[in-house]
Queue: 2 jobs
Job 1
Amino acid sequence: MTRIQELPKVELHVHIEGTLEPELVLELARDAGIDLPYRDAESLRGRYVFSNLQSFLDIYYENMAVLRRRHDFGRLAYEYARRAHAGGVVHAEVFFDPQAHRIRGVPVTDVVSGLTDGFDRARSEFGFTAELIACFLRDRPVAEAIATLDELTACEAPILGVGLDSAEVGYPASLFAEVFDRAGALGLRRVAHAGEEGGPESIRMAMDTLAVERVDHGIRSVDDPALVAELAADSVPLTVCPLSNVRLQAVTDLASHPLPDLLAAGAHVTINSDDPAYFGGYADDNFAAVAETFDLDDATLARLAHNSVSASFLSAERKEQVHARIDHWLEAAAD
Ligand code: ADE
Ligand code: ZN
């Protein structure tokens, strides 16, 4: 286990469907008798060369065809928890895309109960905890998002909050103000992707029209120093996903990632994996990549881990416990 894997951390930006590794795609396809045009996992992985967000989303949605039964979702959740836990993640607030399954005829109850089965097993076997955040797809009709929220409510799905993902450019957050209002009235937490491919105005719009408590990605805030200052002053967390940004060409390479500028400006940055099966790394891999590229010291890594705990929706008591474990890691590192 590396020292970065030993650093306790919370993951706040991971799409469970983005943890579907090629090996599991093939296994589930075989079980279901689905014919796939790939010989093996490596040939599927070989397709994971992306020029932008949309080129990734096309394959991401296509691969979801193998997720059909409650059991498949249970497997997916458990495998993610196992891998994340090995990298030091103690708790995750996990996105899922109910609409992407619902439009394929998979009942939302099977999706939610399957994910819950997998995470319950992870909790009892190794103490990993997870909460679910249902994301609305911003490139699908708003009415469908509302119907999905109604369905989640009707089946009393154990979700912590709602989010907003999929194609950002051309689909302003303001379209989803009503469904986010309804979610807020139900007591659900609110987060949204913004500033991944869209500019600072997309981030402002998500904050102003959706009352979000965290901004997912948010890296393009660097283009508007007044916005970064506001995010820092208001302690609005940014769930940054460095390897994702490189693979989707949101940045030219990791060395040009705005992470150091965001940190220097006092932004409440957290480090996450987004879609680890597609982007070449889980949370610990993202920590290791930025540590190496930017030569981050242990205190900065501990600060990033601390931020992830503070930005989570965990209880004050659990936050204190994980913060203390991070402080302990830092003290041990100094010995
Ligand atoms: N859905 C899964 N991954 C995503 C990302 N990086 N941005 C927007 N929507 C997504
Ligand atoms: Zn994402």
Job 2
Amino acid sequence: MPTSKTHSSHKPLKRYGQNFLTDKNIIEKIVNEINSKEGEEILEIGPGKGALTRELLKSGAKIYAVEIDKYLVDELKKELEQANLINADVLKLNLVDLFTPNRIRVVGNIPYNITSPILFKLIENRTIVKDAVLMMQDEVAKRLVAKPNTKDYGILSIALNYFGSVEYCFRISKNVFFPKPKVFSALVHIYFNGQISPLDALFVKVVKAAFNHRRKTLKNSLTNSIFKDCDFKKIKFDLSRRAESLSVAEFTELTNEINNCLQRI
Ligand code: SAM
């Protein structure tokens, strides 16, 4: 049986983005933001050594925790018997199969190298994910709440604000982790509205096509995209604008126009 000595000799793995939280105050602040309740179902991404898991369990919520590192899963299983530990890659986990018909909450100090794929996965699963409290690189967190006409504004902030809303909670120092990361982190709280519209998939395609060349006009980007067969003369939208200047509501208008256009092809 591994002793605590072998545990500490398990070096944090860079490839899995292992920076473990070591500061009680910050753990408490994160757990307060989640504010989990008895009866709720919570999926934790990357429990690591259980810094958040341990506290979340105290609320009486039902905790599922998906961790890619088998060593850490085996260690956690010994201590946190009430948690449902899943040894898997979160990006490959089928959330619909696991949780439908319930709506879950997601939390995690997530591995920074897969932040975008995790966010897109949550967007895809937005009908079963109520909200997500996530720690990520500060730079990425700022992008999620960026406003139009700024360099940080882009696909992720638009998609998240179309499917819900995002709150930047607070910045987190490098000193609360072991090993210390190179960059600052931040906590964000994402809320999904759970609504589904027939134009959702088209909306994402329009935003992606528009941002393919963010410095060029919409006309230029769209005519060089999957929408090249549209008759853009019939579109009631100023296509001389650039993608980065459009609000979420304006992207919705543009999506409606492109949808009408596609019906005419
Ligand atoms: N929650 C712990 C904490 O705050 O101390 C650990 C956070 S650490 C930044 C990220 C954790 O995610 C690591 O334990 C790592 O092994 C795990 N991880 C990395 N890639 C993963 C993946 N694709 N699926 C599930 N877990 C992953």
